[in-house]
């Protein structure tokens, strides 16, 4: 909403100049500059030269849509990639390869959002640390929305993105149970799709689907489609979907997905930010958005590499939702796929995202630390170091650090000094100094 206001602000008399692509460049408005400063402060919290971000603001311009344009004077754009997949679900690249590619594309913040699993996050963090990329632990959850009040009742598969803090979800076991149930359901579903194809006289083998998915990876429709291409039953993935695997298609099968509202509530209760993925793929978006908003949905994907979709942007405004988006990169190759980091989110949208997300994440980190301060068990320590962001081995405190340092390191990349100096953190910190890692 704010981005549009800026765009149409008649008082914006900034000198426009033509850039090479024929668009216009103008200086940031006061609002955009403030947003830019706040976003970069968070992005570069743990980098060596925090003061550089404010200087960088001076070398930035925005286009008509409030999207940053680098002037190419050493200034770096702050690119967020909020939706992508690795081999841990149906992506083609390992988290390491994905991060390396994101780095080449100038991505500074990346949310890895594999389907129904957080298993790729530790590897992503490891790779990201080397390349100075900030990882938002994420997941794309497969759910079903059942519209009430409609006769007959209609069901629609809905994908919901969840974004968590550096320490991951609170009440991790609850989320983990939901995700593992979905993954189990996906195995049953994939087997069912193979059985349906077999009945359609396509003798696809389960083993080839399982091999393509990889060890321990819950197979999805894309894996089935790849097996079909490999076996020569269709020419390409598109054909596999168009002829057999589309929603309601002859070889389509549903899994055992949880209800979308229940999932949104669980994301909220576990310290995450929930965003409805690709609403343009829904048959019935309005009742879904309305229903999920009531359950506590935070945002809507409205931006793609080919631009902002005004219909969904308007819906986000109507329901007071964040306007986000990501490439949904899978690494399939081919021209039709959006590249990692190719979605240009306006600086105001990024600022709004962090404005909503940071207090949620801050509280989640506090809750996770509190659990350990109250009961300093190995299990509770593992909650803090869930994704291996901080390595603590029993008996040897890493780099001779105390637990106070542990908190500092846990928080310094995620919370500002002011946020960390909050009274509640001080209390937790004092509790930490009285316990020691053995
Ligand atoms: Zn999706
Ligand atoms: Zn996706």
From TrEMBL:
Residues 1-32 are annotated as: Disordered. SMART domains: POLIIIAc. Residues 80-145 form the Polymerase/histidinol phosphatase N-terminal domain. GO terms for molecular function: 5'-3' DNA exonuclease activity; 5'-3' RNA exonuclease activity. This is Polymerase/histidinol phosphatase N-terminal domain-containing protein. Residues 10-27 have a biased composition (Basic residues). CDD domains: PHP_HisPPase_AMP. InterPro entries: PHP_dom, PHP_domain, Pol/His_phosphatase_N, Pol/histidinol_Pase-like. Pfam families: PHP (PF02811). It comes from the Eukaryota.
